[in-house]
Amino acid sequence: MGLLHEIQNDAVDQASTTSSLLRKCLLLASRIESLLLEDWVRHELNGYPESEEVPDYRRLSMNFKGNFVASFGRQITNAPIPQHIVGKIAKRPNIGTYQFRGAVSTLDDRQGMSESGTLRVNYDNMAMFLHDKVFEDYQCLQFWGEISTMAALAIPDIVKTRVLDFTLKLAKTYPTAGDLVGMTTTDRGMKENLSQIFNTTINGQANLVGVADKSTISIVNEAGSVAELRKALLEAEIEPVDLGELERAVGEEKQVVAPGKFGPKVTAWIGKMAGKAASGAWGVGLTAGTKLVESALLRFYGFTP
User: Fold this and answer.
1) Maximum Cα–Cα distance for the chain, whole Å?
2) What does the alpha-carbon distance between residue 194 and residue 205 come to, in Å, rounded to a whole number?
3) How far apart (Å, rounded) are the C-alpha atoms in residues 232 and 248?
């Protein structure tokens, strides 16, 4: 049995752990020389550092609760706290989305987790900022977030499904992929195909036309129009959460002194997107991705790329 078939069998076997499946994927990544697959597998096995974007399936909805106390021993326990209040205080509009960064192996204890119903994320360091903000004359003693265990437990199954999808599509084009004497990736076209298969299955994104310096992406948007800028970049598969960050940045930095001389916040956003392109988290090559966002921004600021 070849390595691809082993991985496919483990992906559909309920008794097989996600961690053992991913270790075989690490071997596959080495044999087909795919850095995109290798990086993703290592992050799933070891956890995602703060410097890395987490995949969409690791962004979980979170609700907030707190315990409050007032004079004469009055208490309010397990009180729901609206997300917009927390977001305003923390100055993080997307605080209701929790990025699960832990190793996938931490989700193996399905029975223990499902019995609790929710995962609790401690935010006691923010409790003092909620004094009098939720209930008048009440101080917040404890503050935490709650995530549905069902949402967290779906992560290993999603990983298995995406691995299965990746290997099935890979096998259709390269049946000997992963074998000791099989395909090689010295051909540029083959590397492009592997990247596209990865981006459409593991990342869940359709790849843009071409890669790096051979991209044929075109961007057209109206100068000064945030709506047109957003539309243009949405068509380039940039995620809404990233677009929201850009909209806030251009809202604060409405002008540039010269073509390409963007403000610090817009420049930081461009750097973030370049990092996503380089890591494969955004389905376009690094060079093409950088040119794409710069072209759209130049048009927004009234310059011709």
Assistant:
1) 77
2) 14
3) 17
DSSP for 173-207, written as a single string: H-TTTTSSSS----SHHHHHHHHHHHHHHTS--PP
Which amino acid does the sequence have at 270? Answer: I
- Give the integer Cα–Cα distance in Å for 189 and 262: 35
Report the DSSP pairing between strands 59-61 and 63-69: unpaired
SS3 assignment, position 67: strand
Look up residue 251 and give its amino acid.
Answer: G
Instruction: Name residues whose C-beta falls within 8 Å of residue 247's C-beta, 6 or more positions apart in sequence.
Output: 226, 229, 230
Query: Cα torsion at 266, 268, 274, 278 (round to 10°)?
Result: -160
What's the 3-state SS for 84-145?
Answer: HHHHHHHCCCCCCEEECCCCHHHHCCHHHHHHHCEEEEECHHHHHHHCCCCCCCCEEEEEEE
Q: How far apart are CA 165 and CA 4, in angstroms?
A: 11
Q: What does the pLDDT profile of the chain (305 residues) look like in tens digits?
A: 689 999 999 999 988 999 999 999 999 998 888 888 999 999 999 999 988 889 889 999 999 999 999 988 899 999 999 888 888 888 877 788 899 999 999 886 665 555 567 888 999 989 999 999 999 999 999 999 999 888 888 899 999 999 999 999 999 988 888 776 555 555 566 777 888 889 889 987 643 333 333 333 344 444 567 888 888 788 777 888 888 888 888 888 888 766 667 788 888 888 788 777 766 666 666 566 777 788 888 888 887 65
Give the pair of three-digit tokens for residue 298: 């130049």
- Quick check: 298 and 259 in contact, CB under 8 A? yes
Contacts with 211 (C-beta within 8 Å, 6 or more apart), sequence order: 192, 195, 284, 285, 288
Which string of b and e fits 161-180 if b means at least 16 CB within 10 Å? Answer: ebbbbbbebbbeebeebbee
**Which residue in this structure is represented by tokens 């995620």?**
239
